[in-house]
Amino acid sequence: MTIKNAIFSLTDYTLVCRLVEGAYPSYSAVIRTDSPNTLTIGRLDLYNSLRRVSVFANQASSLVKLTIAGNEITVSAQDLDFSISAYERLNCQYEGEDLELALSLLSLFEFLEVFQ
To answer: Fewer CB within 10 Å, N side or C side of the chain?
Structure first.
């Protein structure tokens, strides 16, 4: 018999999870451990900026763009369908080459909520 679900019953809730089949990808082959880039920024500052800018992100993609240059990070989002966009600049401490990243808002929110 193969188990495909995990069920957690609590007082007010029941959580049903589907177990993922197959081999988990080797994240160590994708994520560098020796990155020369170091970014230090207030978690709440970044989280609040993402919250404000997220209103202007495309609902289908939910992407945000982070541009890191010098000691400044620019958080921006746009929805070309409605011709709206927003950006904010935050101070940070950054060592490394200038970067531009497009990331999922949901993933960033989840990441920032875990590290309190």
So the answer is: N
- Residue 73, pLDDT > 70, answer yes
Between 87 and 29, the higher pLDDT residue? 87
State the Cα–Cα distance between residues 108 and 103, nearest whole angstrom.
7
- Reduced to 3 states (helix: H, G, I; strand: E, B; else coil), residue 66 is strand
Which residues touch 2 (CB under 8 Å, ≥6 apart)? none
Task: List, as one string, the DSSP characters of 61-91.
Answer: T-EEEEEEETTEEEEEEEETTTTEEEEEEEE
Q: Residue 31 in contact with residue 83, Cβ under 8 Å?
A: no
Q: Read off the pTM.
A: 0.71
Residue 55, C-beta contacts closer than 8 angstroms, at least 6 positions apart: 86
